[in-house]
Amino acid sequence: MAQIRKMDAQVEVKSQADKLYDIFKGKAYLMPKICPDKILNLEILQGDWNSVGAVKLWTFLPGTSESLKEEVEAIDERNRSITFRVIDGEILKYYDSFKSSVQVTSLGAKGSLVTWSVEFVKSDARIPDPDKYLQFCAVVAKDIDAYLLKNA
């Protein structure tokens, strides 16, 4: 039986947690503008930008151009976290299932801590861990931070 694996990546940023979380939750449509060299396009296919059940289609560059459809599976306002489940895309050629979540924690006057977590099941034991996706998400969080600080 395939084993569910988990990995995390964290990045400290200077922006306030609520502002960062707001981008992830309800203003993801800004991401192609915020980091056009990484996120080429993002569209909503079902629902709206900030609700459970929403389906989004991403075209992005974690090295090579990829696309994926994700469904928002859970939103936890109190803990500023969102869970996404990949339902289609190149990533599912390598992983039988792939979930990601982002949580933004306030560090007070120092800024925020962004934690990305992934849960995945490899389609083959020889498939590498999804490090490139976690690193991609960490870099995107830094880009969002720079955008928020510039446009404060």
Write structural notes for this entry:
The protein has 152 residues and is α+β, with helices and mostly antiparallel strands. The chain has one domain: START domain (Alpha-D-Glucose-1,6-Bisphosphate, Chain A, domain 4). Helices cover 22% and strands 43% of the residues. The protein has three helices and seven strands; from the N terminus they run βααββββββα. It has a seven-stranded antiparallel sheet. A hairpin with an 8-residue loop joins strand 2 and strand 3. The chain is globular. The mean pLDDT is 95. This is Bet v I/Major latex protein domain-containing protein. One of its GO terms (biological process) is defense response.
How large a portion of the residues is in β-strands, by DSSP E? 35-45%
CATH superfamily: START domain
* Share of helical residues: 10-25%
Specify the CATH architecture. Answer: 2-Layer Sandwich
Uncertain segments are none
Structural class: alpha+beta
Q: What is the ordering of alpha helices and beta strands?
A: EHHEEEEEEH
Main sheet characteristics = 7 strands, antiparallel
Number of domains: 1
In total, the number of strands is: 7
Domain Bet v I/Major latex protein: 2-151
Organism: Kalanchoe fedtschenkoi
Protein name: Bet v I/Major latex protein domain-containing protein
GO biological process, one term: defense response
